Amino acid sequence: MKTPVSIFFFILCILNFVSAQEISQKGNTDFTIAFGSCNKQNSPQPFWEEILKNGPDVFIWGGDNIYGDSDDMSKIADDYKIQNNNLGYQKLKSKVPVMATWDDHDYGKNDVGAEWHKKKESQQLFLDFMGVDKDDQRRQQEGIYTSHFFETSKGSIKVMILDTRYFRDSLRKDITGKKRYVPNDNLKRTILGKKQWIWLEKELKSSQADFNVLVSSIQFLSGEHGWESWANFPNEVLKLEELISKTEAKNCVILSGDRHISEFSKKNISTIPYPLIDFTSSGLTHAYSKYSGEPNQYRTGKVIAIPSFGILKFDFDRKLVTMQMRGTSNALLQEIKQEYLKK
């Protein structure tokens, strides 16, 4: 039988081992972003505690933060209230700053864009949900786009929230029935709208951040599937790629949601000195369980078709980003690492 002293040292060794394990898991991570999308407010939400286990410095909603789908604004307000009353989400908000974009189901109607007749009212409810002050600029502007600069002793990150709903022109349906939508080559058709494009150019051009994170509710790189994506507006895809190149914005990463699957997409663009990655994480409460495959020329790794959330770990010294898909019990489902420019 162990003596009290030996028991004390045994417990101390265990604690030291656990502490060492935690340090090992943290590694050289200087900043952590957690994000996710597609969250049904009335469904079980098992991930809030798991997200916190990763020590995030910010959590980002990627859209479909609730499923409102109504032009009855009192219903949308009630749905947001249900989400804000979720105890797990309340705990996360008390510990971590939260940023967000929206997608169609919290905007008000499936696949809808600029034509939505309740978009102004919906915008105010979204900003209420996010706790945005009444005198904040977003209360007066059209659209919910915004940015925030995170600075640490080791480096900095600029997060730019894009609004891919408020200004987006109508989609072109596939009359063959093979896909839901097909690309629209009309150069006047837009996703972001004139004012938001001007804002984004200023944000990228003025950014001195080590990393620039663009949050888009819909996928940017994957577009062969025929659902909603930037690929339905090829002129807008080219415009963003050219803008990143022209502004010489350092180390851009795109986060997206919407699809009820999670995947990594990577594209090498000759005028951008690093690969452009679109990290799709979807969904938080449900997933495309009947997924059987779809083309994506830019996919790296495999598709995860179970509920999950995304984690990005930034190492400023090595300019290394570790991107992870995590699921039940914080299990690591898939991971990629990308080194970026050091100057």
Q: How much helix is in the residues?
A: 25-40%
The mean pLDDT is: 93
Order of helices and strands: HEHEHHEHHEEHEHEEEEEEE
Radius of gyration: 21 Å
Supply the number of helical segments.
8
> What is the number of E strands?
13
Binned strand content: 15-25%
Residue runs with pLDDT of under 50 for 5 or more positions? 1-25
C-alpha end-to-end distance: 60 Å
Largest sheet entry? 7 strands, mixed
- What structural class should be given to the helix and strand makeup? alpha/beta
Give a verbal description of the structure:
With 343 residues, this protein is of the alpha/beta class. It is built from eight helices and 13 strands. The longest helix is centred in the N-terminal third of the chain and has 23 residues, at 4-26. The N and C termini lie far apart (60 Å). Residues 1-25 have low confidence and may be disordered.
Give a concise summary.
By secondary structure, the chain is α/β, with parallel strands linked by helices. It has eight helices and 13 strands.
Name a few traits of the molecule.
343 residues, alpha/beta, six-stranded mixed sheet, disordered N terminus
